[in-house]
Every structure is written in structure tokens, then in C-alpha cells.
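DATA SHEET
Item: assembly model
Revision: 1
Owner: S.N.
Input lines:
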Amino acid sequence: MNYPNGKRTTKTLKLNQKQKPDFSNRGMTLEEDINETNAYYLREGIAVVHKKPTPVQIVNVNYPKRSAAVIKEAYFKQASTTDFNGVYRSRYIDFEAKETKNKTSFPLSNIHQHQIDHMKAVQEHGGIVFLIIKFTPHDEVYLLPSPTVFTYWDGQWDGGRKSIPYDKVQEKGILIPFHYQARVDYVKALDKLYF
Amino acid sequence: MNYPNGKRTTKTLKLNQKQKPDFSNRGMTLEEDINETNAYYLREGIAVVHKKPTPVQIVNVNYPKRSAAVIKEAYFKQASTTDFNGVYRSRYIDFEAKETKNKTSFPLSNIHQHQIDHMKAVQEHGGIVFLIIKFTPHDEVYLLPSPTVFTYWDGQWDGGRKSIPYDKVQEKGILIPFHYQARVDYVKALDKLYF
């Protein structure tokens, strides 16, 4: 479908920000694909990487007799870091994974200032930091190293554009081809870039 | 108080496992002290280490109009990793923090098999793994490197004792003295052990 007035982009962004699942393509979200990949890496002794749990502010808990505690009131908190971190080939790795339905660019509204702050701190301490971006219209997943992310993030406050162009992601990132066992086989891209 | 029948130890363990706060000594739990230390490390550019959020299985969420989503039903899940990880001097670090009211040993029932599995995997991949143990009766905090933990953990299935003796923690671990700004200044111990 076409939305010549540009509404499609706006709608897509809202859906992404609410983190609704994307039922397109292979039937799994990027996050699910990465979780499966991490489980495979762990089983095969390739890397130890986990998704951090969703941060929740717990307000009220019931402790019924003879059964598990039930959280009756809680609220979503904003994460202060990225979603994934772990260790690969003795290095600390840290990344955020985002999908976009945009064809021509990755909107920076998918990331938050505190995540950028975290990514910059990690980079200063010698960690490997990157984004994994899935362009669902192209069915393509890229690993984009942090320096390009920072350039565009900082540039937007300086009159720059509020998105990273698709062709810049192609140029500065590494395409991650789909594999059956490691659905988002990102360590291959890390090998090319950092080792 | 004395419990010559040994019940004191049992009671203490139950309290620890339920993770009730310890209101002894400085009025803060070990976890709170470490969270403050990590915030100080981040501010001062010393290290980037965070506590992982408590994992929660969310079952039911209300989305009221014009206000934040409310989680109405959720359950605590068992964590599949340790509580803290991050990057220090370009190395991946990973640890679990535990308090005990036991004077003479650290009971291994404070740790779980899946945490040991995680710690071993991290060590194999070149990460730095350890426990931070607080003996509240002594008001002492130790950093205990993973090899000693693994020796006692594996030994308990082989007829060994089900706790790590206090004097072994003193011998193999590093005492972390209390500092006003970095309440549990564990990176000093890491400097001695790993750098």
C-alpha cells in the first residue's frame, strides 16, 4: 500500500516504539531471531550473550498460600542501557536491535539519548558497541558499528537529518545473511570488523 | 542469640533466599551499596556496570486512556544469569552479590546451578567472573574469584561440604574495604587480581 502523504512512516514509527511484534517475513521478530541466535551461540560455545529483562517497577505483590507470588500492580520503566550484552572472544559486546519498516532510512527516533550515552560510555571503556538494524521491506539485517550511529545522532542536533540513510547503513554496516541455525549470525560481522 | 540446635543457620538461609533486605550495619543492602558504587563508577568514568532487571513474566497488561500501561498480572521468573555485568578496562566482568548472616562459612545454597553454568561459560570465553560476598556478622565484603567458587560447588556433589569456609574466603578472596564514595570498591580488588 502507498501513502503518498507520508503517513506510512509515522505509523510505522509508532508501532516500533510500542514494540509490537512484526509478523512479516519469517514470522519472528528481530528480537526473537537474536534470542534464538544467542541460545545457539551458548550451546555451541561461540559466545555468551543475553537479552536483559524488561525493567519493571513493581508496586504491589500478592503472596497466596501454597502458590507463587503474583505481581498485581507494576509499571514499565525506561531501560537505562541497551538490550543485549555479553562476552565474545574475550571482548565485552553491547548492542541494541531495532526493526524499521522504512525503506530508505533508519529513523533516529528508534533510539533514545540515554541509550546513546550508554553506548558512548561502553565504547570509551573498550567495549564493542553496535546496532543491529532490520529493514523489513528489504528483509535485510545489518550490523552498524557505533561510530556511524554517533555521527548521525550528534549531527541531528546540529541541523543534520533525523535518520541514517539506507545506503549509508549499506556502506558503513555489514550485511548479516540469514542462516537456519544462527538466524542473525552477527558474530561473523564482528569477526570482520573487530578481530 | 544462640541456637545450639543449629536452627539459626537454617533460618538465615531462608531469609537470604527470599532476598529480604538486610537492615543491619549501614542500613543498606549489599545490592544497594553495589548499585551506588556502579553509579559512582559510571559518573567518574571508571567502569560501566549495571544490575540486570528482575526477570518478570508478564501475563496481563491494562492500557488505560491517557495514562501509563499498568501490569495487572505477572510472575517472578528465575534469572538465567548473574545479576551484574559490564565492562572495566576493556574486559567483560560478570558477578553475583550475596550476603550471609553466617559467621563461619558461605552456604552454597545461596547460588544456583544455572548461575554456576553461566559463570563457567563466561570464564571459558575470557570474561572475569567472581562473587561478591558480604559476611554481615563481620561487616566484611570479599571479592571471591570464580575458580574457588567452582572448586567448592563441584566438590559438594563429590562428598564435599556444602559451604565455602570463611577462612578460605579470606585466603582466596580480596577484602573490599568500605569507602564513602565507592561503598563496595570492587575494581581495586580486580586491579590486584586480573590487571
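QC remark: Chain A has one domain: 8-53+79-194.
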